[in-house]
């Protein structure tokens, strides 16, 4: 019996885990050396003392033994002993009458485990920070590659490109605003190519160029026999063709009202219904749209749906006209001239006087007008150097005494009227004039009506 008692004591003291034994009243009966090693609480502070007393003195945060006495089953809690966190498991020991006689508490130091856990969390946070920084760097590097050939020296265009970089990361709808020829399609391409959808298709739709009665079937497709002349096999629409990519709806202001309602449903439900069909088809497409018109004014006139406007206008990007970004005029002109030199094997250059002259011009057709004009000049000018006298327009003379009385809007209208009248007189038709000015025929007709040109 003595030998067995000695063996028990040896096992009790050899345990790596701390062991504390309390009786049914919560008084300390036994404690091993490991308990003192782990908690720093001496044997004399525990033996013969009640656990409630230890709680009051703050030696232990709460007693697992009392929880076992109350629940009459093993319990495990995280306990603080002298400021050190331990995992404490209390187990009841029953007598022959089935009553709890002792509670044996086993404790393990989890401070080291918590330290390692904290280090792991910090390491994960640091790793994620590095991953985010690498992604940010790659995004900037990707944007830099994508922006090659996009001229942005002016602060106005630099702000636009910064916004492009932000919106490319998300799938929100973007509304590109700006006059004809400012480069809305170029910006749409940039957004797509910098996005997570870059590997998918970019489908471009000019809502003004497709007859209204065909636009619905072009966008949403049609089932076989949907209308006279329809393909007998049916046809998927442009939304289906853009699956996994981006669809760019240019001149969205020209979309008829009845079709606007169907587009709104696509944006809300992310599904389309083909013409002549009944089944809805889910689509995974990002929508970019653009217009040179004021959609707000169209909403007020009742020609554009207010709910669709709000849905499209989640992220508006206003692209300034060329006359408001004069710092870009010279770099753009040089870029286009170099492009024509390479395209046609030429060696043309501008006379230095050309640049201030171009900066004073209003450019009603914006970048498209400039590119078309420089292509024309590079081909038709005989000498190597392009001079002011080679340009097909002259700047309007302004009476300086009236300058202060003239608003910017009136001045620009004067320049536009002068430019349009000169080109109409030379080219006779609105189609040819629009092509030379670098704007669409419908835009030119609207300007003629607005300016009252006969």
How is this structure best summarized?
The protein has 19 helices and 16 strands. By secondary structure, it is α/β, with parallel strands linked by helices. It has 4 domains: 1-114, PAS domain (Beta-Lactamase, 2-Layer Sandwich), CATH 3.30.450; 167-318, Rossmann fold; 323-390, Helicase, Ruva Protein, domain 3, CATH 1.10.8.60; 408-451.
Write up what this structure looks like.
It is built from 19 helices and 16 strands. It is an alpha/beta fold. It has four domains: 114 residues, 2-Layer Sandwich (Beta-Lactamase); 152 residues, Rossmann fold (3-Layer(aba) Sandwich); 68 residues, Helicase, Ruva Protein, domain 3, CATH 1.10.8.60; 44 residues. The chain has a five-stranded antiparallel β-sheet with strand order 2-1-5-4-3. A five-stranded parallel β-sheet has the order 7-10-13-6-14. Helix 13 crosses helix 15, helix 17 crosses helix 18 and helix 18 crosses helix 19. The relative contact order is 0.07.
Any chance you could write out the topology, listing elements then pairs?
Blueprint: H1 2-14, E1 18-23, E2 28-31, H2 33-39, H3 51-56, H4 64-71, E3 75-81, E4 84-94, E5 100-109, H5 111-146, H6 155-167, E6 174-177, H7 184-193, E7 202-206, H8 212-220, E8 221-222, E9 235-236, H9 238-241, E10 246-250, H10 257-269, E11 271-273, E12 280-282, E13 286-291, H11 295-301, H12 306-312, E14 315-318, H13 329-344, E15 349-350, H14 354-360, H15 366-380, E16 385-386, H16 400-403, H17 408-427, H18 430-437, H19 441-451
Helix pairs in contact: 13-15, 17-18, 18-19
């Amino acid at each position: 019996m003595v030998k067995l008692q000695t063996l028990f004591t040896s096992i009790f003291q050899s345990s790596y885990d701390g062991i504390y034994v309390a009786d049914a009243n919560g008084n300390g009966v036994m404690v091993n050396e490991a308990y003192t090693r782990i908690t720093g609480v001496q044997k004399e502070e525990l033996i013969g003392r009640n656990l409630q007393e230890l709680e009051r003195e703050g030696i232990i945060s709460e007693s697992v033994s009392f929880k076992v006495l109350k629940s009459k089953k093993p319990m495990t809690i995280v306990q603080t002993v002298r400021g050190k966190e331990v995992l404490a498991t209390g187990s009841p020991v029953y007598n022959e009458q089935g009553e709890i006689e002792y509670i044996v508490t086993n404790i393990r130091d989890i401070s080291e485990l918590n330290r390692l856990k904290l280090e792991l969390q910090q390491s994960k946070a640091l790793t994620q920070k590095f991953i985010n920084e690498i992604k940010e760097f790659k995004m900037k590097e990707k944007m830099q590659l994508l922006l090659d050939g996009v001229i942005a020296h002016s602060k106005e265009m630099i702000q636009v490109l910064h916004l492009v970089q932000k919106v490319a990361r998300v799938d929100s709808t973007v509304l590109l605003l700006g006059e004809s020829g400012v480069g809305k399609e170029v910006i749409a391409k940039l957004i797509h190519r910098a996005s997570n959808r870059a590997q998918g298709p970019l489908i471009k739709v000019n809502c003004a160029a497709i007859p209204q009665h065909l636009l619905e079937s072009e966008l949403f497709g049609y089932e076989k026999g949907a209308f006279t002349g329809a393909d007998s096999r049916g046809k998927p629409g442009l939304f289906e063709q853009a699956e996994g990519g981006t669809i760019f709806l240019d001149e969205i202001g020209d979309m008829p009202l009845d079709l606007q309602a169907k587009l709104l449903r696509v944006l809300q439900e992310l599904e389309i219904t083909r013409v002549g069909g009944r089944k809805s088809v889910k689509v995974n497409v990002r929508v970019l749209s653009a217009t040179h018109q004021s959609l707000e004014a169209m909403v007020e006139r009742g020609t554009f749906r207010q709910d669709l406007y709000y849905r499209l206008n989640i992220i508006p990007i206003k692209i300034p006209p060329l006359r408001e970004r004069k710092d870009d005029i010279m770099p753009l002109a040089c870029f286009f001239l170099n492009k024509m030199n390479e395209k046609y094997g030429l060696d043309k250059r501008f006379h230095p006087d050309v640049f201030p002259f171009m900066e004073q011009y209003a450019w009603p057709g914006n970048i498209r007008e400039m590119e078309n004009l420089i292509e024309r000049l590079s081909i038709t000018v005989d000498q190597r150097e392009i001079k002011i006298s080679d340009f097909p327009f002259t700047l309007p003379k302004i009476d300086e005494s009236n300058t202060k009385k003239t608003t910017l809007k009136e001045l620009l209208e004067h320049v536009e009227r002068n430019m349009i009248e000169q080109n109409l007189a030379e080219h006779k038709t609105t189609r040819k004039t629009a092509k030379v000015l670098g704007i669409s025929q419908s835009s030119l007709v609207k300007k003629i009506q607005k300016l009252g040109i006969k």
